Amino acid sequence: MTFVVPKTINNSQPRTGWKSSSCIGSLIGRLSSLICSGKFDPSIKERLLAGQKMATAPIDDPEYLKGEFYREKYRQAVLKAMADHDLDAIIYPTWNNPPRLIGDLTSPHGNNSGLMSPPTGFPALTVPMGFSHGKYPAGLQMLGRPFSEGTLIQYAYAYEQATLHRQPPAVTPSSSR
Q1: What is the pairing mode between strands 89-93 and 136-144?
Q2: Which of 44, 65, 108, 134 is the most buried (most CB within 10 A)?
Q3: Of the candidates 88, 85, 24, 27, which has an alpha carbon nearest to the alpha carbon of residue 58?
Q4: Other Cβ atoms closer than 10 A to 140
Q5: What is the DSSP letter of 15?
Q6: Which of the two residues, 29 and 163, has the higher pLDDT score?
Q7: Is residue 78 part of a domain?
Q8: What confidence tens digit (pLDDT) does each residue in 81-110 have?
Q9: By the 8 A CB rule, do 110 and 64 touch?
Q10: Any idea what DSSP says for residue 60?
Q11: Number of domains in the chain
């Protein structure tokens, strides 16, 4: 299968945002320094190396093009589903599992926040939706169409005001000196 660069991404266009040369150079330098230093938990080494590889891959790298091809297909499918069902937003739990215990790297993390917004580039925000197991904060993520940040903020505000799920964190008891 051949992957074609979308018209919006080609070598004649300057990279902007995190893919700009000045930003990438700074990030790669800091990431390389961190990896060389070994001053990180060993459990994240593979993720750091993968991030370094992704950040340094040329824009015509076959793996990059493959990712962009599927990312665009996913983006269009989400837009079509929203249009077909007349949706302003897609709403889903931010996490589908309670938080892991510190040091537990084997049980499912359940993070849903990276499933739709990052690969589509669509705006999303999370609001409190209560507590799981009576003590762990649970969030509700709202994903909107491109440039719908204002609508999402209105929905989030209305939801927060209607449910009053937001609670201040427990504070540490004062010391008795």
Answers
A1: antiparallel
A2: 65
A3: 24
A4: 19
A5: P
A6: 163
A7: no
A8: 999 999 999 999 888 777 777 778 788 776
A9: no
A10: T
A11: 1
Per-residue pLDDT of 123-171, as tens digits, reads 999 999 988 887 788 899 999 999 999 999 999 999 999 998 877 767 6
Q: Is 138 helix (H, G, I), strand (E, B) or coil?
A: strand
For residue 131, give the nearest of 80, 169, 78 by alpha carbon.
Answer: 169
CA distance 63 to 57: 9
Q: How far apart are CA 171 and CA 174, in angstroms?
A: 9
Q: Tell me the residue range of the domain where 146 lies.
A: 86-163
Q: Is residue 18, in this structure, part of any structural domain at all?
A: no
The predicted structure's pLDDT at residue 17:
46
Contact 128, 139 (CB under 8 A): yes
Determine contact, residues 127/140, Cβ cutoff 8 Å.
Answer: yes
pTM: 0.69
* pLDDT computed for residue 137 by the predictor: 82
Q: Per the domain annotation, does 155 fall within a domain?
A: yes
